[in-house]
Structure formats: C-alpha cells, structure tokens
Design brief:
- It is a single chain.
- The chain is α+β, with helices and mostly antiparallel strands.
- Helices cover 27% and strands 21% of the residues.
- The chain has 14 helices and 19 strands.
- It has helices spanning 10-27, 67-82, 91-94, 105-109, 135-139, 156-170, 174-186, 224-227, 233-245, 253-259, 268-273, 327-341, 357-360, 473-478, and strands spanning 31-38, 41-49, 62-63, 203-205, 212-214, 230-231, 275-277, 282-286, 289-298, 301-308, 313-319, 364-368, 371-378, 382-387, 395-399, 405-407, 416-421, 427-432, 435-437.
- An 8-stranded antiparallel sheet has the order 12-13-14-15-16-17-18-19, with no helix packed on it.
- Helix 1 runs antiparallel to helix 12 (327-341).
- The longest helix is centred in the first third of the chain and has 18 residues, at 10-27.
C-alpha cells in the first residue's frame, strides 16, 4: 500500500507535515498520525508525538469509534445486494420483538429512524458492555424520540440494531462476520475489535493544565457495531480506496456510490452547514469540494476518514486524546492541500471504439420549449443531458438495451428517456418523463409543448393575418 513519499512534491509534503504539527501542538494531543491516499494508494504518512524519539507509524492501532458504523453499513448492504433484505423493509420483518421494528433498514443506516442518540444511563462509552446484555437494555423503555423517517437524528442504538440484524441473518457474531466478509478480503489485518500491539493508549488532557489522565478502554458489548473497532492509518487508507472504487469481493462500485449519496432528511442547520448523511457515511461540502467519510470518538481517542472522490484524494487522521484537535478539519485540510498543490491529472481522452448510428443521431442540441439543452454521448453508450445556460436540470442516463435510457441523478433520476421516431425511422423528438424535447424551440407538429399558434414566431410590431392585433409596446408592458 505505501509508496515512496517522493511521489508528492517536497512543498506538498512540508505543507502536510505543518498542518498535522499545528493540530497536534494546538490541540495538545499526546500523539497524532495521518496518512494521505491518492490514485488508490498511500502516498504520504506523518506523525507528531509528545514522546521524544518516538513516532507512531501507519501500523500503530488507535480506537476509531464511529468509523465502525461504516463497516457495519457495508455488512448490511452486502445482505441487501444478496437479496436477503430490502432497504425498505421494516426491522420487524427480520428482527422481531425489539420495540423499534417500525424503523426501516434504510432509516437505521441513515440515522432517520427516530431513535435516541444514546442508550440509557450510565454512559455506555465509559462503562462495560455487560451492563447492557440485551437489545432492550440498549434501547430503553422509550426508544423513539421522533417520528420514523422524518428527520436526521444520529443514533448509536440504531447501529446496534443493525449489528443484531447482521447476526440474525448470518447466524454468526457481528465481529466474525465482519472479519470474514470485509476485513480479510480487503487485507485489513490491523483492524480488530480488541487492541493488538502496537497500539496507542487513550488519554484525557486537562482543559486548563498540561497534564494527562488515562482513559479506560471498555468493551462495548452489544454496542460494538456502533464504535468498537481499533485500526491504523494504513488499514483505513485501504478502506478509503474501497469506499472510492468498490471491490467486487465485498461491494460493487455502484453500491459504494450509493453509500455516498445523501439518504437522510436534512434540517435547516445541516443545509446551511453543507452537511448530510448517506448510508453509513457522513457527507459535507467544504472549500468548494464534496467530501465523504466518517469521524469517530471514544474516551481517549479521536479519528477521521475524509475522501474527495472527484480529486481522488483521501486522508486518515488519528489521535489518542478525548478532545482537542478537530480532526474533521484536519482531514479536510490534508485533502485540500494535495488537491490544490497537485491537481488530479485527467486520463487521456480517447474516442469510443464504436457507436451505433441510432445513438449517435441523438447527440447535439435539443429544446424543451425555449430551454436549450445538449445531449452528449459518452463512453459505454451512456448519455448526459445538460442545459446550455450552465444552470438547470441535468442528468446522466444509463442505456437499458432496448433503445431507451434511465436517468441516474437529479430531477430525472429513474425517469425514462425515449426517442420517438417517425414512420420513416428518423427521430421526431425525445420523450423524457412526458417532457418533449425537440430539435427546434416549440417545433411545429411536435407534441406539447410543440408549436401552438399557427402564425408561428413574430417580431414585436408584426400583425398576424388571423385578425389578432399587433403586439404594441403598450400591450407588451401589460402582458
């Protein structure tokens, strides 16, 4: 995974080191370690520590807290892809008797199930999991705080339920399923439910004095699917590649792309902050780029995984302190530094090996009423529709194999694009979810919104022969 650090320019490497050095010093973290991924592999590793002569490398374990949720989401989506469940299924269908069965699988993945954020007291992160041996102990007497599916409300018990769902359908412990189906195929041999040497110790730093207090490392028991894992920057770098590209041994590229799409209702504050949540992944807009990943924290540890798919850059940052540096900002800054200093070089343009004439004739300008669009042909007989004005509805389309295409995003997601042909086989117009696109604005003879007025287009002072009065300046002002 690791490649020579000379792959990044010296100035870029120094800027990365400076950023984590500032984070460790100003955040007063006993140690902080980071790795940057580009082009599907780790290209930089750096660390800062308060211990002289010691620096954690990419193989030192830290506790990663809620990044565990992304791993649990992967297991659930594997079950969906196999046909063992549907994301719209209520939990009750597969895991009856929890008292929270009204929430769907998708609701739980996206934190829109209406469940409480935490389990009942005492605080589950600093107490043994043996205090909560059953799901009822995790959920409490009133598991729902909000209507199901109506709002995003982060829920640790929700991911406990997803872990129990995995166990029920697989007939094995969550951690065993995770190791067999995700960790081993992806080569994440330094990711585990219990710490394995070498690993960092967790610390609390006094808010008003430069002194430390060791934090306990509790086994979370039933809550493990929400935050139990330990990992390294090296393993999480490999996991970032998987979340970008997919791996057919675990999940397809199409499914990991689905994980990265917003799936929960956003509140006004989230919209203002540019934040959303997908299926086990946090989404944010920062510095003009879309970032996906997840943060994590448990007593003694902070963790962050940040990915810019468009820039093909990811960052992992781990620290062993309860609070201090804001690792989501550090991760975003590491991605930005590389993306801006060394922008991604696009692949060479290459012409298509072949294209059907029936598809090629669709390319070019089309009009919906007076709105101008361009339909472009791309690799794999895919089509993209975009407004020529630069703003408006746009979408990519997937070929269905029968001469029609299905929209993949935006307003036209799931909508059918169908070329309508004349008796001689030429294309009359495009039908897109009942919208008619023609080669000319309001083309005469085309279905709605084709030409309607028989006199056609006219100037402001022209008088039509049908007796309609001319359009004067005065009537123009009042119409």
């Amino acid at each position: 995974m690791t490649t020579p650090q000379e792959e990044l320019l010296p100035a870029t490497r120094r800027a990365l080191l400076h950023r984590i050095a500032v984070a460790q010093a100003e955040g007063r973290a006993p140690s902080l370690t980071a790795t940057v991924v580009r082009g599907g592999r780790a290209v930089w590793h750096g660390a800062r520590t308060s211990v002289d002569g010691h620096g954690p490398d990419e193989n030192v374990q830290y506790r990663i807290g809620s990044i565990t949720k992304t791993f649990t989401a992967v297991l659930v989506l594997r079950l969906r892809d196999e046909g063992a469940l549907d994301l719209g299924d209520p939990l009750e269908k597969h895991l009856p008797g929890t008292g929270a069965g009204e929430a769907t699988v998708a609701d739980l993945l996206a934190h829109s199930g209406g469940l409480a954020a935490e389990s009942p007291a005492p605080w589950w992160e600093r107490t043994p999991g043996t205090l909560r041996p059953e799901l009822a102990d995790v959920l409490g007497e009133q598991p729902f705080l909000h209507p199901v599916g109506r709002r995003f409300h982060y829920s640790n018990p929700g991911y406990t339920l997803l872990g129990a769902l995995v166990e029920k359908l697989r007939g094995a412990r969550w951690e065993d399923v995770l190791r067999r189906e995700v960790l081993e195929p992806l080569g994440l041999d330094r990711t585990s439910t219990q710490p394995q040497a070498p690993h960092a110790g967790g610390w609390a730093v006094h808010p008003w004095a430069d002194v430390l207090l060791p934090e306990p490392a509790e086994d979370l028991g039933r809550m493990a699917p929400a935050g139990q894992l330990w990992s390294t920057t090296g393993d999480l770098a490999r996991f970032a590649v998987f979340l970008t590209q997919g791996d057919d041994r675990v999940l397809s590229a199409e499914t990991v792309r689905e994980m990265r799409e917003p799936a929960a209702p956003s509140e006004a504050a989230d919209v203002m902050d540019g934040a959303a949540y997908g299926l086990g992944l946090q989404i944010q807009r920062r510095d003009g780029r879309l970032l996906v990943g997840h943060s994590g924290s448990l007593p003694g540890f902070l963790a962050n995984l940040t990915i810019s798919v468009e820039d093909d850059v990811a960052a992992v940052v781990l620290a062993n302190c309860t609070s201090g540096p804001l690792l989501s900002s550090v991760g975003a800054d590491l991605v930005r530094i590389v993306a801006e200093a060394e922008p991604r070089i696009p692949d060479p343009w290459r012409p298509l090996p072949e294209v059907a004439s029936s598809v090629l004739e669709l390319a070019g300008p089309w009009y919906w009423g007076t709105h101008a669009f361009a339909l472009r042909l791309s690799a794999g007989d895919g089509l993209s529709l975009e407004p020529l004005s630069g703003s408006g509805r746009r979408s990519r389309f997937r070929a269905n194999g029968d001469g029609t295409w299905t929209g993949l995003e935006g307003y036209y997601a799931g909508e059918l694009l169908k070329p309508v042909r004349r008796p001689d086989g030429t294309v009359s117009h495009l039908d897109l979810g009942s919208f008619v696109f023609t080669r000319q604005p309001y083309e005469e003879g085309a279905p709605v919104p084709g030409g309607v007025d028989p006199e056609g287009w006219r100037g402001i002072a022209q008088s039509p022969t049908t007796g309609t009065p001319p359009v004067s300046r005065e009537t123009w002002r009042t119409t």
